[in-house]
């Protein structure tokens, strides 16, 4: 079976372009999205793409003065990417993904359910979350991520309850799911 030649280099080039586009979604127009969530929106001046970001800071600090955060990025009414940013030291990837891209295996707690996931490790800055976990996150009361740091396993704790789901549905076409 011949598969298309898609290398790790191609993956990171595509991901970098996506993140650069999503980064235009500035936080200076941030408003509450319900509970501890925040949202901001922007429009790409060249393409008129409507970009929306929802983000949730962690309840705990892990390194320094910044809390970890999870973010959901949406473009033109569709989900684009979700990320977990520890805002501190992230360990090295510990497994390859389907296309050979570096991943980190994490343990996720959603309310009373636990599961393991391989999330794409992006330049040591953040982990790209899967869409299924994102759906669970937006409907959860408790959300915890155990990940690897250079000093060993760490746990980021989040309280996602209270998110207004109507804007998420409109901006991202996402509905909450139970684990």
Count of helix runs? 3
Strand proportion, as a percent range, falls in 35-45%
Biggest sheet details? 11 strands, antiparallel
Number of domains: 1
Give the total of beta strands: 11
Structural class: alpha+beta
Tell me, what is the CATH class?
Mainly Beta
Rounded radius of gyration (Å) = 16 Å
Terminal-residue CA separation: 35 Å
Helix content percent band: 10-25%
Short structural summary:
This protein has a single domain (8-172), classed as Immunoglobulin-like (Sandwich). Helix content is 18%, strand content 41%. It is built from 3 helices and 11 strands, in the order αβββββββββαββα.
Outline the structure in words.
This protein is an alpha+beta fold and 179 residues long. It has a single domain, classed as Immunoglobulin-like (Sandwich), CATH 2.60.40. The chain contains three helices and eleven strands; from the N terminus they run H-E-E-E-E-E-E-E-E-E-H-E-E-H. Strands 1, 2, 3, 4, 5, 6, 7, 8, 9, 10 and 11 form an eleven-stranded antiparallel sheet that branches. A hairpin with a 2-residue loop joins strand 10 and strand 11. The longest helix has 16 residues, at 8-23. The model is unreliable at 8-27 (pLDDT under 50).
């Amino acid at each position: 079976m011949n598969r298309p030649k898609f290398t790790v280099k191609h993956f990171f080039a595509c991901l970098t372009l996506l993140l650069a586009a999503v980064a235009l979604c500035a936080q200076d127009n941030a408003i509450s999205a319900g509970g501890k969530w925040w949202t901001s929106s922007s429009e790409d001046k060249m393409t008129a793409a409507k970009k929306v970001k929802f983000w949730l800071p962690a309840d705990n600090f892990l390194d320094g003065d910044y809390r970890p955060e999870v973010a959901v990025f949406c473009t033109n009414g569709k989900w684009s990417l979700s990320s977990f940013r520890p805002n501190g030291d992230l360990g090295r990837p510990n497994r390859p993904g389907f296309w050979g891209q570096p991943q980190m295996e994490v343990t996720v707690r959603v309310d009373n359910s636990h599961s393991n996931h391989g999330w794409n490790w992006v330049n040591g800055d953040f982990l790209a979350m899967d869409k299924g976990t994102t759906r669970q996150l937006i409907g959860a009361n408790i959300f915890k991520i155990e990940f690897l740091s250079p000093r060993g396993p760490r746990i980021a704790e989040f309280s996602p309850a209270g998110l207004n789901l109507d804007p998420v549905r409109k901006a991202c076409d996402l509905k909450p799911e139970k684990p």
